[in-house]
Amino acid sequence: MTSWRLGPRGQRWFDAALATCLLLPALATPLVDAGWIGLTVSLVQLVPLYWRRHHPSLVFALVALGSVAQAVLVDTPLWSQVAFPVAVYSVARYASTAAGLTALGVGLAGALVAAVRWVRGFGGTVEADPVLAYTVTISTIVVTAWALGTLARTRRAYVDALVERSERIEREAAQQVALAASDERARIAREMHDVVAHGLSTIVVQADGARYAARQDPAVAATVLETIAATGRESLVEMRRMLGLLRSGDTVGLRPQPGLADLAGLVVGDDIDARLPEPTTTVPDGVALTAYRVVQESLTNVRRHAGPDVKVRVDVAVADEVTVLVEDDGRGAAAQDDGRGLGLTGMRERVAVHGGTFEAGPRPGGGWRVAARLPL
């Protein structure tokens, strides 16, 4: 909805032009029977109209007083009487509802008084028919002015309410977009952390092992390099998948999200004792991805913080819920924390999304334990 309205400067010019146009004909009042008294009454009625928009109630009061003076001092109609319906309109338009109704009541009462005064002024007999005719005519003008002012005020209030509602909806939409963008950034950060941290930590561990093993058995180094290459390719595929999801509608060449069937690729090594569900086990994709990420991040933390010669147990089971348990016999709470890790926070947020529970902390007897329960 579009609504045209004058600005403050335009309003001032319009009010000044209106009042001036109404005032100029009244300057000829001394040339008629009303004389200078009529001119004075006309000025009292018309001059306040310059301020009708900003002080409508006061302007109406002055115009009404001028009309009373006219009824007492002048027994014929004056041009300046047009100020009264203009003042009634201004009160109904720019003042309160109560003020508008008051002006209407004063106008209807004044219509009867003016009708009687005019009938006498024109030398007629005060009878019902002429008084009623004048009263109805003047009352119609007053009621019309009041109705137009009330309608304009109601419409302006309606338009202002629509504008305020539109602005509020726009602000709320912007807030929702900002929240959604924040959530999406957090999700991408978790995915990036899980993929990059796991892949790089595996590569670093394997590279360190190859450096020492190569001195004794070069064949071992070749095997480790193959593992490093495979891990790097795996991480690269994951990175391409996530970056592809950021492109609108670009799903070409993207593989599905990892799930329970992909856990076997994480728990490779003689130092890991794993008990996993059957690859054909079916659970919701979101739950499967969360379980995969919990195991992935837990193993990453083991490689980074648990120390050398660590034994790890991974237990993932599916019943009425998916349970994930990863525990090691490493340094546990004694491991050094660089303060920059997001792994535990990311795992806790992932599990909370599915209404599950997450626990992480030192393991009785030494080491670290991560446990998660994901409802189906």
Tell me what the structure shows.
With 376 residues, this protein is of the alpha+beta class. The chain has 2 domains: 163 residues, no CATH class; 119 residues, Histidine kinase-like ATPase, C-terminal domain (Heat Shock Protein 90). 62% of the residues lie in helices and 9% in strands. It is built from 9 helices and 5 strands, in the order αααααααβαββαββ. A 5-stranded mixed sheet has the order 1-2-3-5-4, with helices on one face. The chain is rod-shaped. The two termini are 49 Å apart. It catalyses: ATP + protein L-histidine = ADP + protein N-phospho-L-histidine. It is an enzyme of class 2 (transferase).
Keywords:
5 strands, rod-shaped, alpha+beta, 2 domains, 5-stranded mixed beta sheet, DUF7134, iron
Topology:
Layout: H1 8-26, H2 35-46, H3 56-73, H4 83-94, H5 97-121, H6 128-216, H7 218-245, E1 272-275, H8 285-305, E2 312-318, E3 321-328, H9 343-353, E4 357-362, E5 368-375
Parallel strand pairs: 1-2
Antiparallel strand pairs: 2-3, 3-5, 4-5
Helix pairs in contact: 1-2, 2-3, 3-4, 3-5, 4-5, 4-6, 5-6, 6-7, 6-8, 8-9
